[in-house]
Amino acid sequence: MSEKLYEVLKRASLFLDEYNRESKVAEILLQHHLRISRSEFFMKMQDPVPSSVIERFEKDLQLHAETGIPVQHLTGNEMFYGRKFQVNNHVLIPRPETEELVLHIIELVKKKYTENPITIVDIGTGSGVIAITLALELPQATVYATDISSEALSIAKNNADRLKANVHFLQGDFAQPLIDENIQADIIVSNPPYIAESEKAAMDDTVKNFDPALALFADEEGLAAYRRIIQQAPKVLKRQAQIAFEIGYKQSADIQEIIMQRFPTAEVRCLKDINGKDRIVSARIF
Ligand code: GLN
């Protein structure tokens, strides 16, 4: 007699509990192995699960429990702003906080630029979530995205193709390829690496052992990428422009200062995330 879905799920949740891992992973993984939608999954709780599926599911479950490999690396995808993006170990797994950065840009564009054409550049695009979402949500925007990693760019391009987003991808160091191409942007957006190496020891194993170090860590107490982008920014921005960064929650004052040093007349503000932590620094440049 094969087991019912809810029984398999219950056993998996208990198993994850023993390893102090989130039980929600069991749902995501089992749904992935059954190849059904989330709503179907919850309707099929009483249905029997084929033993071949249970076997594959439990193998992945054990791998996650023992090694901390993120469930997104096992399923190969993560949702961002309501869309499914492909991910692997060459790109940062998109985080919900970054959706707020995207929302901030969308609101700003709708208010300040209404329907006018604009150019947006996403620096360090990783899986491409920011650039692709902006291209899809803001049809008047021409969107460029850079990354130093060719492996990341190939994932980003794949995501753009699958989601039918028109993004121009360029490889290179932060804004350098945009400077080389003489691109003048209205908006720079970036979620650069911002964690100091000294914080590594305290980090969760699913993050520090699996998200690429290039996407997580930066020198100068985690501020090096912001300094580099701000140093390059005058060559990329139009006279009136906006810069919006995702930041580490303790970095707001430092990053505001980095911006003010280069753009003394900028209007800089900090926005908080859903958890009430400083998460975005956004600057109007004149
Ligand atoms: N821009 C990508 C994201 O927000 C990648 C960021 C990164 O690798 N630091 O998910």
TrEMBL record:
Domain Release factor glutamine methyltransferase N-terminal as annotated: residue spans: 7-76
Residues that, per the record, bind substrate: N191, P192, P193, Y194
Keyword S-adenosyl-L-methionine: yes
Catalytic activity, EC: 2.1.1.297
UniProt record, GO biological process: methylation
Residues engaged in binding S-adenosyl-L-methionine: G124, T125, G126, S127, G128, D147, F174, N191
Coiled coil: none
UniProt-listed InterPro entries: DNA_methylase_N6_adenine_CS, HemK-like, N5-glutamine_MTase, PrmC_N, RF_methyltr_PrmC, SAM-dependent_MTases_sf, Small_mtfrase_dom
Reactions this protein catalyses: L-glutaminyl-[peptide chain release factor] + S-adenosyl-L-methionine = N(5)-methyl-L-glutaminyl-[peptide chain release factor] + S-adenosyl-L-homocysteine + H(+)
Keyword Methyltransferase among UniProt keywords: yes
Keywords: Methyltransferase, S-adenosyl-L-methionine, Transferase
Residue span(s) of domain Methyltransferase small: 119-199
One GO MF term attached to the UniProt entry: nucleic acid binding
Pfam families: MTS (PF05175), PrmC_N (PF17827)
Family named by the database record: Belongs to the protein N5-glutamine methyltransferase family. PrmC subfamily.
Functional description taken from the UniProt entry: Methylates the class 1 translation termination release factors RF1/PrfA and RF2/PrfB on the glutamine residue of the universally conserved GGQ motif.
Protein name, per record: Release factor glutamine methyltransferase
Source organism of the structure: Oceanobacillus bengalensis
Gene name per UniProt: prmC
